[in-house]
Amino acid sequence: MTALVLLAALPWSAHGAGTPAGTVIAHQASATYSSPGWSSAVTVYSNTVNVTVAQVAVVNVTPLTAEGESHVDATVDFPLTITNSGNGTDRFTVSAVSALGLPSVVYWDMDGNGVLASEEVAAGPMAETRDLPADSSLSCITRVIVPADVTFIGQTDPLVVTVVSVFDNAASTWAHRSTRIIGPAMEVVKGVNTPLAHAGDRVTYSIVYKNRGTSDATGISVVDVLDPRLRFVGGAQSREPDRVAGQVLTWHLDPVQAGQEGSVEFYAELAATAVPGDEVHNSAVMQYEDGPTIRMAESIESGFITIQSGGTVTVDIGPPHTELGQPGDTIQCSFVVTNTGTFAEDFELAAESALGLDWLLYQDLNSNWKTDPGERVARTGALQSGGAFTFIARTTLPRVAEDLTQDIMTLRAQSTSNSNNAKAIVNTTTIVLPRMILGKQATAADPRTGREILFTITYANEGNGQADGFVVSDAIPPSTAFVPGSVRLNGALRTEQADGDEATLQGGVLSVHVGTVMPGSRGVVEFRVRIL
Q1: How far apart are CA 76 and CA 78, in angstroms?
Q2: Tens of pLDDT along 8-63?
C-alpha cells in the first residue's frame, strides 16, 4: 500500500493588520511510498510554492470626537493619536478643515503630553507623518485659531481632521472636533426719529444695544461724538449722560447679560447754520470687557438726517429696497417721489451704481408695477404740493466673479430750481452665484484581477445661487471594465443606457445629468468597475 504524508504549513504570527507585508509564505508537499521487496520507504517532494504577503494599509485615530470652547482672538487645542494599524511601514497625510473657515493647523506633539509647546509650534505645521512601522503611533495636536471677530460668538464650529495613507490613498479615517465660541458680543444700533429736518429743529437720537453673545458684558461705556451741526439738549425718557464734554457724550452702563438689550436716548438740536441738502450722520462707540479683553463695537446707522430747505419746497423719495438675484435676472424696484412743499416743483431723477450697472428709470403711467414701452423717464415734471410721482428702476444683473457681490445703487431726486432741495436713498442688490464642490473616492477591498472597485463622487453647492444643468462626468479608467447596472444617483439605481434617465455611458465616459442643484444641496454618484 502506498502511504502519502503532507507536511504542515509553516507557522505565522499576527502583526499590525495581519502578517507583515513582504513576508514570504513558502510551502512544499512530500509523500512516502514503498513496494513489495523494498527494504525501506521512498520519500518524494513537490516543488516549493512562494506567496508574498502584500501590504495592507489601515489607519486609526483616537479620540474620534472631542469638544472644546474658545473666546474670539484665542486658540483651542485638540490632541490626536494616529496609529498605523496596517501590516507594513506607512506614512499618513493629515489635514484639518473648519466649517466656519477658522484657521486650523496640525502640529507634531513631540513629547506626546497633549500640550502644544512653543518649540513644537516653531517646528511648523505637520502635513504628513514620518514613517510609522506597523502597530506604532504618533501624537499630534490640532490647533483651531478663532479670529478677533465677535460675529463668531455664539456659533459652534465643526472641524474634520482627515488622515490618509500615503501607501494607499483609499485607506483613510476622520476625527471630528467641535469648538463652541463663547463670550459677550455687543451690537449697537443708532437711529434718529426723523430723516428730514430743518435748521433749528429738535430731533431724538436712540442708541439701542444688545448682547447677542453667550456671557455677560461688563465695564460698559458708550461714547457719542456729536456732529458739529448738532447741539446736545438733554436726555429723552432715559438717563442723562454721565459726562458731557463739549460734543462728547459718555454713558457708563451696568453689565449686560447674554441676550439682554437696552437703550439710551437724547435730544439734539440742528444748528441754525445747517446747509439744506446736507446729510448729518452720527455714530456711537461702545467699549466693553470680555474677561480681561477690552472690545469695541461701533454703532450701525439705522437712519440719518437730511437737512431740508428753509423755503417752501421739500421732497421725499422711497422706499429703499434690498434685492437678491443671479446673473441674468431682471431686477425691478418701484419708488415714489413726493413733493412735501407748498409750491409746484420739478425734480430730476438719477441712479448711480457702485458696480456700474445700467439702472434704467421708467414712469409707471398705468400703475401696473411693470415697465412698458415709452415709459422711460429722467424727471418728474411739475409736481403740485403733496403730489406723488411713481417710477420704476430696472436693471439686468451681470456676471460677477464672487458670490454675494453687492451693488449699492444711490437713487436721487433733485429740484431743478433749488439744488439744495434733494433727497437720496440707497438700495442694495446682492448677486448670488453657485459654487460647486466635487470630491471622489475609490473603494477596493481586494484590488485584484476580476475584483471590483467602487467609485463614489460627491458634489455640493456651497454658494448662494442655484446651479443649473449640472452634469457629473467620469471616464472609465484603463485596465477596467464598467459593471453594468451599477450606477446610483443619491442611492437610486440608474441605467447607463440612453433611455431618458439621468445616466448615460458613451465612448467610455459615464455622464450623470443631475440638473438643478439648489444652494446648500449635496448628493452622491456611485458606479463600479471590474479590474481586467
Answers
A1: 7
A2: 333 333 345 567 877 766 656 677 766 666 677 667 666 766 766 788 899 999 99
Q: What is the pLDDT of residues 349-399, one digit of tens each?
A: 999 999 999 999 988 877 766 777 667 888 888 888 888 888 899 999 998
Q: Are strands 172-181 and 480-482 parallel, antiparallel or unpaired?
A: unpaired
Cell numbers at residue 34, please? Answer: 514503498
Find the domain containing 94 and state its range.
59-181
Rounded-to-integer distance, Cα 507 and Cα 425, Å: 58
Could you tell me if 334 and 225 are in contact, meaning their C-beta atoms sit under 8 angstroms apart? no
Specify the number of domains making up the chain.
5
Considering the domain architecture, whether residues 397 and 478 belong to the same structural domain is answered as no
- The predicted structure's pLDDT at residue 275: 77
Residue 525 CA from chain centroid, whole number: 24
Question: What's the CA angle centered on 410, arms 406 and 411, to 5 degrees?
Answer: 135
Kind plus residue range of the DSSP H or E element containing 120? helix 118-122
Number of C-beta neighbours around residue 160 at 10 A: 14
Distance CA 284, CA 207 (A): 8
Asked if residue 507 and residue 417 are part of one domain, the reply reads no
pLDDT tens digits, 201-235: 889 999 999 999 999 999 999 999 999 999 998 87
Radius of gyration of the chain (CA): 37
Task: Please check whether residue 188 is in contact with residue 297, taking contact to mean a CB–CB distance below 8 angstroms.
Answer: yes
Who's near 233: CB < 8 A, 6+ residues apart?
202, 266, 267, 268, 269
Query: If we measure between CA atoms, which residue out of 361, 395, 392 comes closest to residue 378?
Result: 361
Distance CA 211, CA 388 (A): 42
Give the CATH number, domain containing residue 161: 2.60.40.10
Indicate the pTM of the whole model: 0.49
